[in-house]
Write a structure and sequence with these properties.
By secondary structure, this protein is α/β, with parallel strands linked by helices. Helices cover 38% and strands 20% of the residues. It has 12 helices and 13 strands.
Length: 376
């Protein structure tokens, strides 16, 4: 029986820790036959102190219990602010939303251990909505990597009857989803390709660039990429030549780049050259990843924060030599795409349907993802 239309909010904060992307999505149907329409999207930046604390904990790998507790509250309040702003702008009441499906903030990911930090009860209390959270653990419990999770939504939204497509999301970490032309969900291949923006963002933060990022890749665009450095950096990522399923975290990528830099004695390289080299490292990682696929795709659809880095997009185009389009060109905001994906994952959870993709995560079976916190 076809399910009536419903509104679900999806919310996401990635490894770049720049803030929360929220999306209200109108969803019809069930499972892979769902159809969706983006109603509204909003981005709420993290407070700079919150962002600094997230990176500090991730870098150190530890924190006081009191710091962790406070961090969870502050992250949850940022999520609540984003969702409440969306509801206000749309003139919606909490009861108009079936649930909020949220990712939480990644503090640690080394499967089967993973931490996406959030207080779902606080989020439910501040929004008046049911909350679906902690999506990765059920897949990890089934022997999977707990990542990537977006392939289910990529298949729902972007599969094509005659074209092989790759959906490439460039956040702090880059990940791809392979969609076989006319294929089923079981044909999907998805995995992390290596760094996305994490190396560039690290140097931008360490150099105190405004907003902690190389905005639009402007400084990288002035630099000279060091191919030897970029190539060694991606080779030193221990998983680069492993077949999927595989996932990674920013610490692994920063460590690989740092070791390459010291090996080649590039410590004194100008910032603009490091930023350019970081973009090339990402592009080389994606190119190597494509060799794990059954064939070269007909086109690559990109999304995420990296879409705005013109140097990164140019490096991708020059290295990969395939048509590169943005998801915006297909009617799906590249900034909202992952929030939309969590709305679709949330819909599957509410329906009691599995939404992990074992061929992508390595799980032993398909499982229903997420934990539901009732509305207050």
């Amino acid at each position: 029986m076809e399910r009536a239309s419903r509104l679900i909010a999806g919310a996401m904060s990635g490894t770049s820790a720049d803030g929360v992307d929220g999306a209200v999505v109108k969803i019809d149907g069930r499972g892979v036959e769902m159809t969706a329409r983006l109603v509204a999207h909003r981005h709420i930046p993290y407070d700079l102190n919150l962002r600094r604390q997230i990176f500090q904990i991730r870098r150190q790998g530890s924190a006081k219990l009191s710091e962790l507790a406070k961090l969870g509250s502050e992250i949850s309040l940022a999520y609540a602010q984003c969702v409440n702003k969306l509801l206000e702008e749309l003139g919606l009441k909490p009861g108009d939303i079936c649930a909020i499906a949220v990712h939480g903030q990644t503090l640690f990911h080394d499967p089967p251990q993973t931490i996406q930090w959030l207080d779902p009860s606080l989020l439910a209390a501040r929004t008046g909505c049911a909350v679906i959270s902690d999506f990765r653990r059920a897949d990890c419990a089934a022997g999977g990597q707990g990542a990537p999770l977006v392939p289910f939504a990529d298949y729902v939204l972007f599969r094509h009857p005659t074209k092989n497509r790759v959906l490439l999301n460039i956040g702090g970490i880059a990940n791809l989803t392979w969609l076989k032309s006319g294929g089923s969900l079981q044909d999907v291949i998805a995995f992390d390709t290596g760094p996305g923006n994490c190396i560039s963002d690290h140097y931008a933060r360490e150099s105190n660039l405004p907003q902690g990022v190389d905005l639009n890749g402007a400084l990288a665009d002035q630099g000279d990429a060091d191919f030897q450095l970029a190539f060694l950096a991606i080779r030193l990522w221990k998983r680069v030549f492993e077949p999927p399923p595989k996932s990674t975290d920013t610490g692994e990528m920063l460590s690989a780049y740092d070791r390459a830099m010291h090996t080649l004695e590039k410590n004194a390289m100008p910032l603009k050259n490091h930023l350019a080299s970081a973009c090339l490292t990402t592009a080389l990682g994606v190119d190597l990843a494509l060799h794990h696929l059954p064939s070269r795709p007909d086109e690559i659809l990109i999304s995420g924060g990296g879409v705005h880095n013109k140097r990164l997009v140019r490096e991708l185009s020059q290295v990969i030599k395939l048509p590169i389009l943005t998801t915006d060109e297909f009617g799906w905001s590249s900034q909202a795409k992952e929030a939309v994906a969590f709305a679709l994952l949330g819909a599957a959870t509410l329906d009691g349907l599995a939404s992990n993709v074992p061929s992508a995560t390595g799980a032993s079976r398909a499982v229903v993802l997420g934990s539901i916190t009732p509305k207050p």
